[in-house]
Amino acid sequence: MSFLNVLDKGYVRLVNHMGSDLTVVNAARVSYAKESDELNEKDIKLIKFLAREGHTSPFRHVLVQFEIYAPLMVARQWWKYVIGSAHFEGTGDSFEAWNESSRRYITEEPTFYIPASGEWRSKPENSKQGSGEILDETVGMKLTSELLEYIDSGIQKYEAALNNGVCAEQARLFLPAYGMYVRWYWTASLQSVCHFLNQRLEHDAQKEIQDYAKAILELIKPLYPHSIDELIELG
User: Fold this and answer.
1) Residue 44 placed within a domain
2) Residue 234 burial by CB count (10 A; 0-12/13-18/19+): exposed, middle or buried?
3) Does a structural domain hold residue 55?
4) Is the pLDDT of residue 235 over 70?
5) What sign has the CA pseudo-torsion 223, 64, 72, 102?
6) What pTM was estimated for this model as a whole?
7) pLDDT for 166-219, tens place per residue?
8) Which of 17, 46, 104, 229 is the most buried (most CB within 10 A)?
């Protein structure tokens, strides 16, 4: 499996990967000029030890590449992990790469995330961020309808600007931004991916990015089962 649908129109696609649990083991054992040919119980114990004691550099020898299609509000939360990866991994250099499609260069039909009437959430009672319970569906129907009207108006103005000869990089100003789907490639070490998952699988993470985190986990769990078991803190 290399593709999972997320939200109403989004997806995560596993494009490529390098390494395995054995890669982690051998990256650690090279300190003693040793190497395993096949993963065995001793190797699995080593993975447990590395994760438990915070010896994380061997997990950075495994790389995973995804194509992601998500609303801009999800993409901008995600982007923080690329910015912070150099500090997090303590290397002075980033172990992540991000390349995103740009409406400076493309004019494909805009696509937007539109919550269904039963998906609108209330604000939380005791926090300035996050969300609470699902709103009454009557309210949700009104919100979905209003959002559709707002998006339609923006698209009409965007297309009119293009037809009037406005460059794509300025015409996009008419598009409602946060719900618009964007597409990007994300390449990261296994350590970075698991750091992202540990934070975005938490119950208090925004639901939309939780859904993407669950898809990422489902795609990589079969590739690195022992490392994932030790690096992901599933509550």
Assistant:
1) yes
2) exposed
3) yes
4) no
5) negative
6) 0.90
7) 998 899 999 999 999 999 999 999 999 999 999 999 988 999 999 999 999 999
8) 46
Query: In Å, how far are 8, 39, 82, 151, 229 from 187, measured between CA atoms?
Result: 24, 25, 10, 31, 21
User: Domain tally for the chain?
Assistant: 1
Catalytic residue among 103, 172, 183, 200: 200
58: DSSP letter: G
In a domain, 60, yes or no: yes
How would you class 190 by CB atoms within 10 Å of its CB: exposed for 0-12, middle for 13-18, buried for 19 or more? buried
Residue 85: predicted pLDDT: 55
User: Which CATH number characterizes residue 191's domain?
Assistant: 3.30.1360.170
CA triplet 175, 178, 180: central angle to 5 degrees? 60
Domain limits for position 83: 3-105+179-231
Q: Is 104 a catalytic residue?
A: no
Write out pLDDT tens, residues 116-170. Answer: 999 999 998 877 678 989 999 999 999 999 999 999 999 999 999 999 999 988 9
Q: Which residue(s) pair with 16 in the sheet? A: 65
Is position 85 within any domain? yes
